[in-house]
Amino acid sequence: MDTSRQILTDDLLQRIHGRAARYDAENVFPQEDLDDLVAAGYLTAMVPEAMGGAGLSLEEMTREQMRLAAAAPATALAVNMHQVWVGVARSVHARGDDSCDFVLREAAAGEIFAFGVSEAGNDLVLFGSVCEARPDGEGGYSFHGTKIFTSMAPVWTRLGTFASDTTGEDLPHNVWGFVTRDGGGVETVGEWDVMGMRASQSFATRLDGAHAPADRIVRRIPPGPTADPFIFGIFANFEILLASVYTGLARRAIELAVETVRSRRSLKNQNAPYSNDPDIRWRIADAAMQLDGIYPQIALIARDVDEQVDRGPLWMPQLSAVKSRATEVALDVVTKAVRVSGGSSYSNNKELSRLYRDVVAGLFHPSDDESVHGAWANALLGPVQPWPPVEDAAG
């Protein structure tokens, strides 16, 4: 690993780690973490050097996000959504499309981007919206509706979002654009009173006329699956960076389990450390082996995005699968770490207890396990056939 391009220093990560428990207990946004990350240039890490950033690749960013998540998962998840938009703009730019270059320029200028995509009860995710996009007659749109899980809700200055335009003579279209917090029509609503990932402060966002002018509308495309580079960029950066966060969290859980079993003593075995117990050793080794298989998968698929490799129709299912495997493995790894660490890990003052709550959030990010399996089944078997066949039913 080339450490010369790392943005996060060990000292910075230690400071962030030292604050994580307090932010979780108080259920507040990690403002000091964000200030330190901004000062370190972390929010411009993937902005091309020519535009004022560090020029990190997606593959390099996956490693940084793993390190940040090991220190403070909720901080990493919150910042992840900004990094996704920067990664999308970087990916689109690399393919010769300048429609999202303003994201790179504004990120370099200090703007903070958030992800306003998910909607309650909408399992179409990127492919359809229940929110409304109303044209302003000049190429811009105002957005109306509620988005959920808007991480970094207290601090974002730019929100990437989408909604459905049903006003045209053509079929409904998904409209993607970026609105500003100071432009009005935006309200943070509800409570972020959740089991884990509390410091991400992922409140819902109500859009009531939030306006994006024509030069901040990046796509108007038909609903449904598409090969558009912008949608691919969202899918790729979101799934890969999300997988990285939960992989970093799981790596920290193994570290804590190792520390714990070395210090715990077994009266049954003449006060020997639990690290001598063959069952404990097997379980920790099993967790480490599971996680070890995730690292190369993330690295390879991120590298293929960076290098614009054509994986054909399997691209989307494979991106979904990496996220699904990473989050499912992370959940199992943390569970194993809790098992070997004993009853003390159940206490709220233990870091492993917080990681156990945090890792569950991975189940709720798209793509969920059901849609991943559905996508793979369709890719391999084709659509479900009507049965019995029409001709048989008629006969």
Automatic annotation (TrEMBL):
Domain Acyl-CoA dehydrogenase/oxidase N-terminal: 15-86
Alphabetically ordered keywords of this record: Oxidoreductase
Keyword rRNA-binding appears in the UniProt entry: no
Domain Acyl-CoA dehydrogenase C-terminal: 241-365
Classification via SUPFAM superfamilies: Acyl-CoA dehydrogenase C-terminal domain-like (SSF47203), Acyl-CoA dehydrogenase NM domain-like (SSF56645)
Highest taxon of the lineage: Bacteria
Cross-referenced InterPro entries: Acyl-CoA_DH_C, Acyl-CoA_Oxase/DH_mid-dom_sf, AcylCo_DH-like_C, AcylCoA_DH/ox_N, AcylCoA_DH/ox_N_sf, AcylCoA_DH/oxidase_NM_dom_sf
Name used for this protein in its record: Acyl-CoA dehydrogenase family protein
Provenance organism: Georgenia daeguensis
Lineage, broadest ranks: Bacteria, Bacillati, Actinomycetota, Actinomycetes, Micrococcales
